[in-house]
## 1
Amino acid sequence: MTYARAARLMIATTLCAGLAACGGGSGNSQPAGGTMFDGPDMAPANRGTRIQDLFGRAENPNRAVGVNKYLWNASLEVLDFLPVQTIDPFTGVIQTGYGTPPGGGRSYRATIQVSDPALDARSLRLSLQGPGGAAVEPGTARAVEDAILTRARQLRIRDGRL
């Protein structure tokens, strides 16, 4: 027997053994009382339906969205004078149109991202723009961030979770 022929025979034998190992069961191809898709391996609790499940990320699909609700609600409350254009609670992004703050003379638009479930300054990203995409003074953006963080803390204290 030649080396190439022996290698092919070994590969074929290994593939057949692997295929035979997949069949393990009582010889009955269907579970009692249903189709072959009704088995215990296909129960909703055992069946992965998302790509993340394939890579070992077993999260509960009924889990709450991964953004901090206090930062989210505080952002909407503090910037309530701005018209909301798009809002995506799954990515934590809020984009607004132009609006003028009460008592102010200049209009702004904002993009807010709440990126983490923690009530932390690092979880909040704010971008303010003036008309025509003009830059906003860093002190103004910082004051808005501080107002959002302060309001988020107040909401958390009101819920009694501190």
## 2
Amino acid sequence: MPQMAPISWLTLFTLFSLIFILFNIMNYYNYSPTPPSYSLESKITPSPLNWKW
């Protein structure tokens, strides 16, 4: 089985590294969070604390 030359390993490493970096950059700038929707029905009502000692 023939072996690959070291320059081929170097080009493969740089190719996959560049693809990985570009993929991460694209995902970082494509992220668009949705703002939370506030509704009046979902208000948190505090319950009274009845401590029974």
